[in-house]
Please model this.
Amino acid sequence: MTAFTVDTHDGIARVVFDLPDEPVNKITAGVRDELEPLFNQLRGDADVRAVVFLSGKRDSFIAGADIDEFVRLKSSDEALQLVRGGQRLVSRFGELDKPVVAAIHGACLGGGLEAALACTYRVATNHPKTTLGLPEVQLGIIPAAGGCQRLPRLIGVRAALDIILAGKVVSAHRAYRFGIVDELVHPAILEEVAMKAARKLAGGWKPARPRGGLASVVLDRNPLGRRIVFSTAEKQVKKKTRGHYPAPLAALDAIRHGLKHGIAAGLDCEAKHFAELGVGEVSRKLVQIFFATAALKKDSGVEGPEPEVKDVKSLAVVGAGFMGAAIAGTAVLRAGVDVRLRDTSLDRVKRGVDLGRKILRDRLERKRLTKYEYRRLEALVSGGADWAGFGRSDLVIEAVFEDLDVKRQVFRELETLVGERCILASNTSTIPIARIAEAARHPGRVIGMHFFSPVEKMPLLEIIVTDHTEPWVTVTSVDFGRRMGKTVIVVRDHPGFWVNRILSPYLNEAGRMVNEGVSIEDIDRSMKRFGFPVGPIQLLDEVGLDVAHKGSLVMHEALGDRLTPIDGLGRMIDDGRLGRKSGRGFYRYEKGKRKGVDQSVYEVLSVNARPVPNIDIEKRLVFALLNEAARALDEGVVRSARDGDVGAVFGIGYPPFQGGPLRQLDDIGAARAVDTLERLSQAYGDRFAPAPVLQRMAASNLRFYPNN
Model:
């Protein structure tokens, strides 16, 4: 393997990293072996006065370490050996007795950024694909090749903690503002500027780097100030992770230890934590989700031969309400397509266009877009009360009121307006796509695209296919969803699709508990302790009690008595409680902010709140969801356990450290899960009867992931 080429011009060694047979550069065992003699060669060459390090890949500097090597680790000793090798390699960039300039274009992540941080100087392109970050905590580990040591010393403790503890990846513009990179340039002149900087550094030039203002002096470079920063950060991490994710606290410890005792001691601390975390169960689960998500990005969504993807250049959205406007704004921002909004009145259209553009303005205000980019994208959003512009659309997404007759009428009109190769999609969350498609003359080009609110933030998109949906429609919809920045799963046209299907019994059971007098605080606290970002009762308020009630009626009609709606929601709605949007639900709200449980809810429901052991709450809620996930997979709602788990993690916030509901069932074991469900069934009713697939798996000792 030859991953590096070197040529020297006027005393500047130009080192190009281009890993053979790989789409991106990554740090592998072979790369480490090749770099060692290369550094010795550069050190011993008297004609070399400085080095410029570049990537030969089109849109990647260094994407990080080879995760395949990481997942093969069997013990903490192996992990320690691996991380020590990485630390030695990265340190060589800084220990070379000649200045090294990193010329960065594309992804510079993890070990790639750690290598760049060890260089003398960093030049990055201002291209959107140039991103920098230390995302290791997202995989349950920490930056352990010096990232916890060099980044705080370069940009200050507070800014470094903000990046490292959250595993953030930032744009080149933000990296420049942070001080991670020294210069920001157009891609066309990256090498020229890097070579110029190398020549200046070789001549003894010392770059002046800002030291920050008064806050930096008081908090970043003052031992007492640092203690305050670390104490605050530790409290925030504990509150956010609830003890489920050890990596952020380990990173905090490595940073604190290194700043107090020096870089060598800090590297020792990094290595120790990495060795423990790298073979831990939390990291294993997070890595499994990472690989599953990466595999989904390459999945066309259809089995067998893949048809050609239609290039969607023009999108139309019917319905300029909150969802339609958000879909439009997100499509413009992420996919860069022209979007036409349509609604029944110009006032509604104007509000929708304004909402769509607000997504762009928010990015501008947070300096994620330049003024030029904002103006260009803003011009792509337009609308009207007629069908003008729809004839040239490649994809139309219907986002009107959840009424079958209304949606059918929209689809009938659309077919008279659009071309034969235009895809017609519905953003419905409850109505079967096949029933909507019954109104279409060409049901093969009808598909579901179920976005989650808020569209600009929620990462999941369900693509719902019917028995008639044509493969080219599926692959094109999947491709466009990814262009919008979504993690996409393909779902069969079953009641509730995937996310709402598995969520329904969970929310239903939570409502039953409230009707039984179980404390709302105890229910939500229990599930947040389990690992959900919000509890089920708070989630009902966020969704809207009217929306949740309507969904429960649909699920009951489709799936029978085990999803009998609770009468509590009906009484809440009759009392004018719709959740956050009305300022009253199970919780009280002031100016949109949740202020605590509304104690008068118990009077409306005619119950008295009582304490219940946490384990009882957790078992009832979790196993209601797990049982439904197994049942839905068995019915073919999703194509694989992988898709189901990714959908649960990204769609409802199922705790990532659990790996998803189906992987958690594997950890529990089918036999034990069946036993627990049978006991719950005896205590609370037939709705807990074990899914047939779990009974079959228990009898044959099977797993959803047989190879893990």
About this structure: The chain has a mean pLDDT of 94. The first strand starts at residue 4 and ends at 9.
